C-alpha cells in the first residue's frame, strides 16, 4: 500500500473516532437508560457497548491494513468477572483501544481534558471510566481512594503508570498509584507489555508520519501478582520492581526493532538453467 493512501486511511480513522464518539454519546447511549435498572447498571451497559465498538474500530484498522492487532492472552490467576488492575506500557495512541476492546468490562482512568471535552465528554460520562485529574469531577480529587472504591465494586481497571505515552527511546517513571490501589483493594495486578514493531502514533509525532508497512502489535503477559498478602507499605518497592521488568522488556523491543530494520531482504530468485543447452 502506498504511503499516501496509508496517511488518508489513518486520517479517516481519526475522523470516524472523533465524529462517531459524540453521536454515540448523544444518541445511542442514552437509549440504554430505557432498559437499565439504575445509574450503575446504565454505566456498566454503556461500558460494554463502548468495548464492542472498540473491537469494531480495531477490526476496521486491521482490514484497512493500518495495524496488525495482537492475539490477546488469557488472564491466568484472575477469576472470570473478578476485578483486577491491568498495568501496561503505552507506546502508541491506539493501544488503549486495543486493550479496552479485548477484555470484557475493562475500564480506565480518562484524561481530564477528554472528560471535559464536548467531543468525548458526553460519551465518557455515561461509562464506568474514571475521570482523571483536571476533569473537574469530585472523584478526581482523591484518585487513589476513587480507584480503590471502583475496584471494590467489581470493576477491572486499566492504568498506564507512566501517565502518558512512552517516548521513542525510553519509558517514563512509573507512578505507584495503580499498584497501591490494587494492594489496598486486594485485587490481582496483571502486568502486560504492549510491543509494536515500529514507531507508530507516538507522542509528539503527527499522525501523518506513518510507517510504510503495517504496524504489528503484540501483547505479552509479564506477571500476575496476588496482592492479598502484600502489605500496603510494600507498594513502593513492588512498583519499582515492576518498572524494572518493563524497562528491560522495553529495551528488548528497541533491539528487536533494530534487528527488524537491518534484516536483509530475501535474494531475488535465480533464473533456471536452460535444460536444453548441452
UniProtKB/TrEMBL annotation:
GO terms for molecular function: 1-acylglycerol-3-phosphate O-acyltransferase activity. Pathway: Lipid metabolism. It comes from Sandaracinus amylolyticus. One of its GO terms (biological process) is phosphatidic acid biosynthetic process. Residues 84-197 form the Phospholipid/glycerol acyltransferase domain. The keyword Cytoplasm does not apply. SMART domains: PlsC. The chain crosses the membrane at residues 12-35. InterPro entries: Plipid/glycerol_acylTrfase (IPR002123). CDD domains: LPLAT_AGPAT-like (cd07989). This is 1-acyl-sn-glycerol-3-phosphate acyltransferase. Keywords: Acyltransferase, Membrane, Transferase, Transmembrane, Transmembrane helix. It holds the Pfam family Acyltransferase.
